[in-house]
Amino acid sequence: MGVNNRLGLWILTALVVGNMVGSGIFMLPRSLAESSSPAGVMAAWAVTGFGVLMIALVFGNLAIRKPELSGGPQIYAKELFKEGSKASLLSGFMSSWGYWIGNFAGNVAVITTFASYLSTFFPILTSQAELFTAGTFTLKVGNALTFAVCSILLWGTHFIILKGLENAGKLNFAATATKVLGFFLFIVIGLLAFEKGNMLPFAAPRLDDTGHSISLFGQVNHAAVSTLWAFIGVESAVVFASRAKRKIDVKRATMLGLFISLAIYIGISTLVMGMLSPDALIKSDKPLIDAMENVLGPVGGKLIAGLGLVSLAGSTIGWVMLSSEVPYQAAKQGLFMPAFAKLNKNGLPVFSLIITNVLAQLFIFSTISNSISAAFEFIIYIATLSYLVPYFISSVFQLKLTITGETYSTNKSRMIDGVIAVIATLYSAWVIIAGTADVKTFTFGMILLASGILFYKLLPKPGSLPGYADEKRTA
């Protein structure tokens, strides 16, 4: 692999922060306010932050103890079974398939949020004027333009990445640095404009679809999947472990990125609740812009919108890089279709990049018939649940290592890592149960996951890996 594609600590950290602090920071305050009281939201952040910290420690430990298993948390699935067995191959493939779906679906959530914030400058993107009608379907001007903007951002990013991974990483770093500074400025302004009355009553009841009151625990339970979405991407450095300049940088970037992102999320989520009334927040498609406009007027809203566009453009680069890297790394280990292991002259997985973005384009079609906020909420639920299985598997694999003692020379580190693995496993299982309570979401997610079975026969047979795993380059 060329020097041009090696990633250092700060670029890896920027990938973690850039991918975590993407669409969630801009849209989640509204989603959370709708389902939970301020007390429920803050409790959900606390529980999720602790749970993800345990998962991040698992990722960091595995990156150091099992450096040969690079490419993302889904790779660990095959290690739970006998090497070379059908169970090992099937579990590795299905986990990779689900994780891949989560990645490109997550990318679409970032892209659709970009279009939402661009509408601040171009209101025509929200126009309800009818463009044409075919039967029961009516295409509106705003939806058509949103679809065009999303498609241009996706494929524009595609061609930027084809020019070289390190250059794309530097653009992502610049965008990440800009948004981190901007968000901390937002926090300072929010502290000055915070109104305690907007968060009262602090533990206000929420009602379900049948009109029954939801308890505080129920609110936290419901918000768990949404708050976890904010931390999706914490494993970004792990996915690029094979491209890191130093293996220790993978763990450092993961932890550093998590703490930076956690500070931004909790700070902004709490402050927005104090800057907007509950009703205004629930009705907002652009809560950060509305909060800043409420304080500084239209100029403030446009500043946040501009910051959002830079942030989301950078996140799109990071997510597209991540999405194409996942099946490439899986294919190198015999867990995905061999064609995904092909590299171009710049050492980039060109086939994986094309197929990933074609599938992301299909998800972008959801913007044609839905509002951006509706499309966002649907996509993040599917994406988050797709991620949870690999997270759960990673925690179980760490637990397996501590039980067998593999890679451990001292009982103290083995015991500490064992406790971390147990907590991470329980947390992942809890969010999976909470997220699959909705039958519609669970059914659609299972259909997407099960669709991988159609391609399972295309995998190479165990033992034939060397024939395609070499990093062959195509023109």
UniProtKB/TrEMBL annotation:
Membrane topology value: Multi-pass membrane protein
InterPro entries the UniProt entry points to: AA/rel_permease1 (IPR002293), APC_superfamily (IPR050367)
Entries under Pfam families matching the protein: AA_permease_2 (PF13520)
Subcellular location: Cell membrane
Membrane spanning residue stretches: 7-28, 40-64, 104-124, 144-161, 173-194, 214-241, 253-276, 303-322, 347-368, 374-394, 415-435, 441-459
Record keywords, A-Z: Cell membrane, Membrane, Transmembrane, Transmembrane helix
Name the record gives this protein: Arginine:ornithine antiporter/lysine permease
